[in-house]
């Protein structure tokens, strides 16, 4: 029966006891976190998942959060004849924008590499970012010569789940209960797959930010990039809406973050999404005085029900180079020949050509309007 041993990197009081060893990040709004806190949550969750699986013995000597030196940890693992060691950590970097997860293995251990590859595969399969491609060979000397990998006698892996020192990694992944749950399963899957068992399904826990958006940054592509570009434009930071997060989008994202007092890293994570999805300060909506002469009539106009619809409608008007009018004015008199209706249906709106973009709900209308954008 395979024997798996788990460790949670560091101790609950590493910072205080050692005068700064280990990693601690201070998120002023949410309190103080030591790396051990999230290491322990993930390790304990993985241990509990594996204990429910038949055919495994799982050891977790830090169950009671007792302090153990590295020497004691390795000695314990070796003395108990563990067949696999999983040491759970988060990464640290002087760069406050480093991101992604990776597993370290001892450079000449083929079994260790196999374990690390399983971790990297599951990180990628869940749409989470990797660092260094998801695996890293620890060297005999230098910064990556980790004691736990060097002196353990069984296949071993030291997982670094994201960067504890990068605020967006901490907020989006390490402190996100959904991601924690995925990480617990991934760590359990390391053991299951290494010993030829079926991995736990993580699909039901697919990583979704609180607002339903993915983290996007330079190099990202797809629907969420497109939405970010539209939203940036709506807030006055116009960039091409091409679904590709390039240099210009990066600059506009940073300018937006600076304007909103956010961390300026160009990474659109939970905090930036929350600001982007807020309604922009409505631009002034101007109703023109009634036109007497037919030739003075505007060619095109966008008509809205109220200021709540102004966000996307203003963007459409900007692209069409026309004005935005309230429904009550557009029903009283013809404000343009061609009228785009952003909410509320045709009603009594006067015009030669009415293009009705109204949906069943306000967000349906917004989607229809966005679809009209280039
Ligand atoms: Zn660590």
TrEMBL record:
<keyword id="KW-0378">Hydrolase</keyword>
<feature type="domain" description="MurNAc-LAA">
    <location>
        <begin position="74"/>
        <end position="191"/>
    </location>
</feature>
<dbReference type="Pfam" id="PF01471">
    <property type="entry name" value="PG_binding_1"/>
</dbReference>
<dbReference type="GO" id="GO:0008745">
    <property type="term" value="F:N-acetylmuramoyl-L-alanine amidase activity"/>
</dbReference>
<protein>
    <submittedName>
        <fullName>N-acetylmuramoyl-L-alanine amidase</fullName>
    </submittedName>
</protein>
<dbReference type="GO" id="GO:0030288">
    <property type="term" value="C:outer membrane-bounded periplasmic space"/>
</dbReference>
<dbReference type="InterPro" id="IPR036366">
    <property type="entry name" value="PGBDSf"/>
</dbReference>
<dbReference type="InterPro" id="IPR036365">
    <property type="entry name" value="PGBD-like_sf"/>
</dbReference>
<dbReference type="InterPro" id="IPR002508">
    <property type="entry name" value="MurNAc-LAA_cat"/>
</dbReference>
<dbReference type="Pfam" id="PF01520">
    <property type="entry name" value="Amidase_3"/>
</dbReference>
<dbReference type="InterPro" id="IPR002477">
    <property type="entry name" value="Peptidoglycan-bd-like"/>
</dbReference>
<dbReference type="InterPro" id="IPR050695">
    <property type="entry name" value="N-acetylmuramoyl_amidase_3"/>
</dbReference>
<dbReference type="GO" id="GO:0009253">
    <property type="term" value="P:peptidoglycan catabolic process"/>
</dbReference>
């Amino acid at each position: 029966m395979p024997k798996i041993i788990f460790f949670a990197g560091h101790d609950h009081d590493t910072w205080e006891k050692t005068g700064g060893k280990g990693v601690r990040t201070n998120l002023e709004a949410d309190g103080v976190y030591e790396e051990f806190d999230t290491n322990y949550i993930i390790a304990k969750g993985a241990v509990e998942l594996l204990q429910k699986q038949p055919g495994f013995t799982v050891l977790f000597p830090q169950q009671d959060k007792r302090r153990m030196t590295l020497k004691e940890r390795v000695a314990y693992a070796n003395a108990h004849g563990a067949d696999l060691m999983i040491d759970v950590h988060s990464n640290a970097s002087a760069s406050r924008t480093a991101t992604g997860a990776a597993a370290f293995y001892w450079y000449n251990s083929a079994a260790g590499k196999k374990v690390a590859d399983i971790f990297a595969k599951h990180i990628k399969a869940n749409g989470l970012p990797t660092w260094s491609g998801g695996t890293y060979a620890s060297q005999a000397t230098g910064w990556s010569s980790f004691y736990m990998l060097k002196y353990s006698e069984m296949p071993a892996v030291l997982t670094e789940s994201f960067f504890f020192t990068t605020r967006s990694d901490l907020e989006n992944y390490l402190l996100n209960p959904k991601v924690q749950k995925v990480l617990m399963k991934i760590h359990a899957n390391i053991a299951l797959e290494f010993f030829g068992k079926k991995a736990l399904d993580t699909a039901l826990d697919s990583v979704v930010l609180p607002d339903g958006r993915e983290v996007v940054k330079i190099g990202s592509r797809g629907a969420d990039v497109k939405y970010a570009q539209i939203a940036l434009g709506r807030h006055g930071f116009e960039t091409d809406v091409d679904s590709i997060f390039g240099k210009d989008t990066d600059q506009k994202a940073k300018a937006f973050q600076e304007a909103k007092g956010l961390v300026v890293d160009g990474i659109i994570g939970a905090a930036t999404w929350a600001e982007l999805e807020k309604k922009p300060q409505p631009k002034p909506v101007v109703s023109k005085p009634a036109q007497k002469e037919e030739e003075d009539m505007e060619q095109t106009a966008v008509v809205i029900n109220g200021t709540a619809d102004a966000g996307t409608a203003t963007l459409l008007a900007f692209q069409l180079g026309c004005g935005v009018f309230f429904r009550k004015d557009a029903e009283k008199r013809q404000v343009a020949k061609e009228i785009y209706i952003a909410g509320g249906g045709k009603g009594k709106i006067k015009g030669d050509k009415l293009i009705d973009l109204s949906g069943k709900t306000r967000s349906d209308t917004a989607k229809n309007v966005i679809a009209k954008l280039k």
